C-alpha cells in the first residue's frame, strides 16, 4: 500500500540545472507545445493562484507592462493557473475593460493540473486547489536557471525578476559572477583563480582587489535595465 509520504518522496522536485519538462496545453493564444514555444529564447514560466483575484491581477498587469522589455532581451512570458480557458478569457477581457491593459502573453488553462504537478506548483499545505506563485527562468537550451516561489498572499517583485534575468544573461556572456544586490552598471565578480599561475596573472590586472579570491571589474559593454 502506497502512503502519502511515499508518494511525495517519489515525485522529485525540479531543481536548477534540470531540463524544463515539455507539455501541451490550451492557452489564451491557442494550443501550445512548450518546447516549440520556448525554443531559442529565454522563457519565464510563472504561475498564479486564480483568475479574478486582486494580487494576481496586479502581477499579470506588471508583467504585461514589461513585456516589451522582456522581448528586447529575447525572453518570452507564459503564465499558468488551474482555471479554465473560459475563465482566463473573461478575466483578460475584464482587466482590459477596467484598466486599458491587455494581458499580452499566453495564459495556460491547466484544469487537469498537469503543468502544475509537472513543475511542482501546488503546495498542499498552502492550498490543494491553487498554484503558489512560482517563477521558472529557462534558458534557450531548455535548462532551468532560476526558481523563485512566493506565497499566495504576497505578490512578486517584477523588478527583481528583471534583475536576475539580466544577471543570468550577463554571467553567461561575460563568464563572470554577480555580487549581492548587483544591478547593471555595477562591477561584476571575476571568477576565483584556479591555480597559483592565475593568481599571479590577476595581480597584473586592474581589478578592484579585496583579496585573491574576491576581485571585481567593470564590464566592457553597457548593460541596460
How would you sum up this structure, described in words?
The chain has a five-stranded mixed sheet. It has a three-stranded antiparallel sheet with strand order 8-10-9, with no helix packed on it. It folds into two domains: 4-155, 3-Layer(aba) Sandwich (Glutaredoxin); 175-217, no CATH class. 33% of the residues lie in helices and 21% in strands. It has 225 residues and is an alpha+beta fold. The longest helix has 17 residues, at 158-174. It is built from eight helices and ten strands.
Brief summary of the model shown:
The protein has helices spanning 4-10, 34-38, 54-65, 67-72, 85-99, 114-118, 158-174, 196-203; strands spanning 24-27, 30-33, 42-47, 75-81, 107-109, 133-138, 144-150, 188-189, 208-211, 214-217. By secondary structure, it is an alpha+beta fold.
